[in-house]
Specification:
CATH architecture: 2-Layer Sandwich
Number of strands: 6
CATH topology: Alpha-Beta Plaits
Bound molecules: adenosine-5'-triphosphate, magnesium ion
Number of domains: 1
Distance between the termini: 26 Å
Length: about 120
Amino acid sequence: MMYKVEAIVREEMLEDVKAALKDIKINGLMVSQIMGFGAQRGYTTFVRGQEIDALMKPKIKFEIVVSSEKWRDKVIQTICDVAHTGGIGDGKIFAYEITNAVKIRTGATGYDALQYEDDDE
Ligand SMILES: Nc1ncnc2c1ncn2[C@@H]1O[C@H](COP(=O)(O)OP(=O)(O)OP(=O)(O)O)[C@@H](O)[C@H]1O
Ligand SMILES: [Mg+2]
C-alpha cells in the first residue's frame, strides 16, 4: 500500500524538517506555503487601533508519498520529532492511502514509480 503523509508545520520549521527528511532518504517531497487554522479557530486582535482578523496563519505544508506502512510511520515520527515545540500551533499530520503513482519518464506505476534508480540524479 502507498501512502501520502501531509504535514502542516510552523513556518520556521521548514529547513529543519526538510533536512531531517533528506537524512532518512525519502525519494521525493512537495512543500507549499499555506494559510490555515486549527483547534483555536484563530482570533481577532488589534493592530494600531485597527481590529484585524488573525484567523488564518501562514504555515508550511509538506507532502510525502511513500511505498509502505513502515515508511509512512518513519516519516511521521521524523516530522513529529523535529517539528515539536510543545506550544499551541505545532501543526498536524494527516496520512492517506494512495491508489496509484506514475513516473512519467518511464511509465512505471505503483510501487515501482516511487523507487530510486541508479541513473537518477
Ligand atoms: N482539522 C483540520 N483540518 C484541516 N487542516 C487542519 C486541521 N487542523 C489543523 N489544520 C491545519 O494545521 C495547521 C496547524 O494547526 P494547529 O497546530 O493549530 O492544530 P491544532 O489542532 O489547533 O493544535 P494546537 O492545539 O497545538 O494548536 C492549521 O493552520 C491548518 O492549516
Ligand atoms: Mg491550533
